[in-house]
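ok trying again, last paste got cut off:
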Amino acid sequence: MTKKEQNNLILLLARRRVILMLLFLGAIVLTYTDSVRLLREQEESNRAKRDLEKHPLSKAASPQSNVLSMDHKVPLTECAYNSPKLIGPLKTDPKYIPEWDEIEVGETKNGGCWQPSDCAQRQNVAIIIPYKNREEHLRALLNTLHPILQRQNTAYCIYVGEQHDDGRFNKGAVMNSAFKEVLKEHAYDCVIFHDVDMLPEDDRNIYQCESNPVHLSPLIDKFDYKPYGTDFGGITMLRPEHFIAANGMSNLFWGWGREDDDMQFRVGRSPFNVTKPVNYEQARYKMIPHQHAWIFRNFKIRDSTTDVRFLPPEYLVKYKERSTVEGLTSVNYKNLGTDRKSLFTHLDLELRELVVDSLKTEFISSGSSQTLIDTTKKECSYIKMENTRVCEEYGHTMVLKYLRKLLLSYDDAVKKCDELGYMCTGFAEDSLGKYRLREVTQLLSSDNTPQDCNTKGKHIFHKSCPGDQSFIQVSQDLTIPISDQLTPPNYAFTHRLQE
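nice, full thing came through this time. structure:
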């Protein structure tokens, strides 16, 4: 072997040694990294396990933790599906609204939880109530629901998922975010989404999941106890894996309506079917009389009153294209706090990506500024707009159909408009000193009002609520000085945003 060949062999062996050393060091680093990861995962698992053990429905916290009877000799038998405690038809009065201290709670634990002690529970059930500004309805529902669930021997916790902000209600996003928070609390076998205005009439409609999703409220007094167009509205019951497989609810529907129909499709494309309750004839409910304060208007108007903002209608009906990517997996929220009250666990859910405290729009001219709009949150007021009209037939929904026939004095119009909240944007003059309420604002000046516009008055009172995105804000009059430098589009405006 030549000297050159010897040198090449030595170099090759040296390279192999270096490679082997690097592989050895890499294996050590990888092993250490895996060990750290496994330790962290184990720590998280232990922490989650400790949290679950503290939950009111956990076996560790349960008086039946060993699933034994009181004499500790005979194992408890599983609770019967149709409990012997059931009464049957109930005297449900949707007009009765109890005070908080009058609500029947039974043996409810902190957080609105309960489980049977004389038999082994069949399932752990989470009841989620999507909620916003309906306290009277909530009191009526809790007063009816707690006694029924305890007679059914249903182990349960009630969660009230409340939308935190002042904007329009998004039921789907509230349900998605509440579902995520609830599963962090406990490994539930069953989840029930319950509208706050639906009162059971019979305790034989059992709140315990089946192998398929169940439409638990098919018979409602408002619809003469007949099917009402959707198999997934009102009260729905499903296992967590069902909701996950459907990718939850859509987050696109702001205001009342349409999200249930969307969810029906999502469940339909999943590998399971919506079924009827086992005790179908007993699945009867009374709906508490109310007006929907959050109207779904679809696409006719694209301004601050639009519920689905700037979304083309063809996108909303493309269920297949968006249902797999838009829903439970894409909901954007923050839980501002979990409060375990005596009757329920309250989830304070913020859905807005950006929370704005104030927004000021200013006009800049000659080194000085003029404030046009200041949205710092203030009390609502009614601004009189002369030579301005809103045509009588424009922008009404069925909710205000009967109200638009009323001719009200100024004071009565203010009072009623305040009561209606987001449903009323002001009132238009019909005759001297008499006004009609308006739900949608489309302001027209007197010189461009169509001939078929039958509003008789010459002014309106527009509801202005600074800091509330649900209302169009009226700016101050702008005085533009005459100048060659300030011809359009050279006007200078600035926006000051305070988060």
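cool. The longest strand covers residues 155-163. Helices lie at 3-54, 135-151, 171-185, 240-245, 259-268, 313-316, 319-323, 410-420.
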